[in-house]
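Internal tracking record. Fields below are filled automatically when a chain is submitted to the structure queue. Please do not edit lines marked as system-generated. If the sequence contains nonstandard residues, flag them in the REMARKS field before resubmitting.
Queue: standard
Priority: normal
Entity type: single polypeptide chain
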Amino acid sequence: MQRPIVGILGGMGPAATADLYAKIIAATPATRDQDHLHVVIWADPTVPDRSTALLQGGEDPTPWLLRGAAQLVAMGASFIAVPCNTAHAFFPAIERTITVPLIHMMDETATAVECAHPSIERVGLLATTGTIASGLYQRWFAKHHIEVIAPNDDQQEQFVMSAIHRVKAGETGQGATNALAEAASFLVAHGAEALIAGCTELPLIFRDGDASVPVIDPTWILAEAVVRRARASQRAVGGR
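SYSTEM-GENERATED OUTPUT FOLLOWS
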């Protein structure tokens, strides 16, 4: 009996893609190899920078994303997860082209935060400038009546984007964590009751416990959503 195949459209960046796969493995109830999910990964690091495209009219990453999604569908993917927050700004073009669903990380994160922290009214967003400018988190959290605040321009460039660039360059030590902590402290001081690590590089250096308020990891939430969907699909077709 055919099992569902999870498609991961990644490479943006490679470490974030590997992190999602590792979290899918960790989130899967399994006692042997055969209990894990069938996963195919398309990791193309040549996708043009998503923030540059959104903010500065840089090269449009859509053709790369469409090509990767098509490859995953051709490999049998039942649905696709994308471990890049900023790439979600380009989802409409992908959804018009492919025949399988995309799992939306912002939707899943907003729902998970409301369920886990029902009293929260304001969260701080640590993300690329492109993700912040796209308004994706703001729109999805507004549906749950949660306000999203972001660092000011100086904090964003000096600390958040600096930390993201460090991780992309392979630096995951305390220096990158400390840089992000500065922006986190700014958001907490402005009323954030939780922090969203809204760039898939950030959970590699900034985790729950690194701030005075809860740190939410959308990559982990996406991994849990992948596992739920795959296992539900397996049950629907009578699989294990």
